[in-house]
Amino acid sequence: MFPEYRDLISRLKTEDAHFSRLFERHNELDHRIHNMATNVTPADSATIDTLKKEKLLLKDQLYDVLRKAAAA
After folding, report:
1. What's the rounded Cα separation, in Å, for the pair 35 and 52?
2. CA-CA distance, 54 to 3, in Å (whole number)?
3. pLDDT tier at 1 (50, 70, 90 boundaries)?
4. Whole-angstrom Cα distance, residue 66 to residue 58?
5. Domain ranges, ordered by start, for the chain
6. What's the CA gap between 45 and 10, in Å, rounded?
7. Counting CB atoms within 10 angstroms of each CB, which of 16, 30, 43, 53 has the fewest?
């Protein structure tokens, strides 16, 4: 995710608690969705869709933080 910001992501994960929480939640959702999609964890499609929407919202928020930090 966002390879052009790899160094900035590493820095923000240690320096920005809000960014770190968003990043960790995004990764958590990614793992949960993967487990549900591969039938490791049972779930219906509505649950998976809801989690995907939350993950996408988090990705948008992460991108906003990254753009602002890169511009600063």
Report:
1. 13
2. 21
3. confident
4. 12
5. 3-71
6. 33
7. 53
